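User: Some background: our group keeps a shared notebook of sequences we're curious about, and every so often someone picks one and asks for a predicted structure to add to the entry. Today it's my turn. The entry only has the sequence so far, pasted here. Could you supply the structure so I can complete it?
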Amino acid sequence: MSDSSPARPAAPVLDVWCDLQCPDCRSALDDLRALRARYGERLELRLRHFPLEKNQHAFAAAQAAEEAAEQGQGWPYVEAVLGRVEELDRAGEAFLIEAARELGLDAEEFDTALIDGRHILIVDADQAEGKAIGVTGAPTYVIGGERLDGGKSQEGLRERVEEIADRLLAGGA
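Assistant: Of course. Here's the predicted structure to add to the notebook entry:
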């Protein structure tokens, strides 16, 4: 039996290319929270990994974020890690496991995931895709085919994302 009700259009996607050891990405958290509060389910916010070489624990943090997502706590974990980048700088993987434990996640599974590298392919694929579309720093936002670089300045970026999201939600191209 076919459903004759019109299909709900897919929510616009905002890809957020992020390095979890990056102070600029931490600064972007308030904008991301505001966007999530404003749009809720009407805007799909996707974390994309772009660990920068200068941040020695960023690649492990990206893998840990994937493990957190697998355990159902992706965004809370990302916010916990980004909120404490200095601790990540200092303690590295021990901090990533502690942050998981604080959120009630299976910390032993985090430890195992970081050892066996089960999430490396996802992180590598994100990083490769980011480079292919011109991402050079973090945070970088991509919405409606437009790339907005927040690594240099985040001034006015949330407003620009909102303009594009509103246009996409209104059905404009």
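Suggested note for the entry: Residues 23-39 form the longest helix (17 residues). The helical segments are 23-39, 58-70, 74-82, 85-91, 93-102, 107-116, 120-132, 157-169.
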